[in-house]
Amino acid sequence: MSEKERNEENISEEENIKDQVEEILDDAIEEADEKSAEAEGEQLSEKDQLKADLEKEKDKFLRLFAEFENYKRRTSKERIEMFKTASQDVIIAMLPVLDDFDRALNEIAKAKDKNLLKGVELIHTKFRETLRAKGLELMEVKEGDSFDADLHEAITQIPAPSDKLKGKIVDVVEKGYKLGDKIIRYPKVVTGK
């Protein structure tokens, strides 16, 4: 479903709820008018009954109005969240390309061809900056950091090269990225035991 169709659907839902509120109000007013006309000649207890009915209708209206306000807030929040992560699928698909760029840059640096290295660095920087402008952030993880299962994905454990690295990150196999506050790819790390 396209964004335009969702917006049209949300607008039509809001109009339906508004129509329901107007109908309930009109019905309550008509009912109160009819009952008050009938009640003029009758006893005081019927007048009290009408007041109770009117209060009941007011309560219905207030509840429906509150429900409508909650609906508006919820859809606004969902719409904002959708805009924030609308490009998430495209960015996730571009992460392997970014990884390939990093690997190519490392290999070209070994070749000692300065012009080739400079050209690839320019393209790499432009690509990374474009993704950063769309909200992509690199998760900074380095050797010696504490392992956190909520932030890292351990792919294996190896004997720690030193006592300082026991239970810590020994190597980063694949970089992790966040889109806004949401982690879209966890960094893959090797831990020491």
UniProtKB/TrEMBL annotation:
<dbReference type="GO" id="GO:0051082">
    <property type="term" value="F:unfolded protein binding"/>
</dbReference>
<keyword id="KW-0963">Cytoplasm</keyword>
<feature type="region of interest" description="Disordered">
    <location>
        <begin position="1"/>
        <end position="20"/>
    </location>
</feature>
<dbReference type="GO" id="GO:0006457">
    <property type="term" value="P:protein folding"/>
</dbReference>
<comment type="subunit">
    <text>Homodimer.</text>
</comment>
<feature type="region of interest" description="Disordered">
    <location>
        <begin position="28"/>
        <end position="50"/>
    </location>
</feature>
<dbReference type="InterPro" id="IPR013805">
    <property type="entry name" value="GrpE_CC"/>
</dbReference>
<dbReference type="GO" id="GO:0005737">
    <property type="term" value="C:cytoplasm"/>
</dbReference>
<keyword id="KW-0346">Stress response</keyword>
<dbReference type="GO" id="GO:0042803">
    <property type="term" value="F:protein homodimerization activity"/>
</dbReference>
<keyword id="KW-0143">Chaperone</keyword>
<dbReference type="InterPro" id="IPR009012">
    <property type="entry name" value="GrpE_head"/>
</dbReference>
<comment type="function">
    <text>Participates actively in the response to hyperosmotic and heat shock by preventing the aggregation of stress-denatured proteins, in association with DnaK and GrpE. It is the nucleotide exchange factor for DnaK and may function as a thermosensor. Unfolded proteins bind initially to DnaJ; upon interaction with the DnaJ-bound protein, DnaK hydrolyzes its bound ATP, resulting in the formation of a stable complex. GrpE releases ADP from DnaK; ATP binding to DnaK triggers the release of the substrate protein, thus completing the reaction cycle.</text>
</comment>
<dbReference type="GO" id="GO:0000774">
    <property type="term" value="F:adenyl-nucleotide exchange factor activity"/>
</dbReference>
<comment type="similarity">
    <text>Belongs to the GrpE family.</text>
</comment>
<dbReference type="GO" id="GO:0051087">
    <property type="term" value="F:protein-folding chaperone binding"/>
</dbReference>
<dbReference type="InterPro" id="IPR000740">
    <property type="entry name" value="GrpE"/>
</dbReference>
<protein>
    <recommendedName>
        <fullName>Protein GrpE</fullName>
    </recommendedName>
</protein>
<dbReference type="Pfam" id="PF01025">
    <property type="entry name" value="GrpE"/>
</dbReference>
<feature type="compositionally biased region" description="Basic and acidic residues">
    <location>
        <begin position="34"/>
        <end position="50"/>
    </location>
</feature>
